[in-house]
Amino acid sequence: MARSALRLGVRDLAKLAEVTTATITRFENERGGLNSITAGKLRTALEQAGVEFITTDRGEGVVKLREER
């Protein structure tokens, strides 16, 4: 969801996060998890691209696009 909200392709995110496209595709298709290092790389890349990860009463991992100031 975050990737599509940013209109990033798999290749674009893979390059930003310095991971393989297969890693992203496998994770998005729920065919495997992520180790903590890879998850951190993806989170950092998404945050730098404008995603804000928040925690709500509905749980963690909710994302929204950061508002421009």
Please give a quick description of this structure.
The chain is of the alpha+beta class and 69 residues long.
- What does the main sheet amount to? 2 strands, antiparallel
Radius of gyration of CA atoms, rounded to a whole number: 12 Å
Q: Tell me the helix content.
A: 40-55%
Order of helices and strands: HHHHEE
The strands making up the biggest β-sheet line up spatially as 1-2
Low-confidence runs of at least 5 consecutive residues: none
Distance between the termini: 23 Å
Number of strands: 2
Question: What is the molecular shape?
Answer: globular
- pLDDT averaged over residues: 87
Helix and strand content put the structural class at alpha+beta
Helical segment count: 4
The percentage of residues in β strands lies in: 15-25%
Structure characterization notes:
This protein starts with a helix and ends with a strand. With 69 residues, the protein is α+β, with helices and mostly antiparallel strands. The radius of gyration is 12 Å and the shape is globular. 48% of the residues lie in helices and 19% in strands. Helix 2 (10-17) crosses helix 3 (21-28). The chain contains four helices and two strands, in the order H-H-H-H-E-E. Strands 1-2 form a two-stranded antiparallel sheet.
How are the SSEs placed, and which strands pair?
Blueprint: H1 2-5, H2 10-17, H3 21-28, H4 36-48, E1 51-56, E2 59-65
Structure characteristics:
69 residues, two-stranded antiparallel ribbon
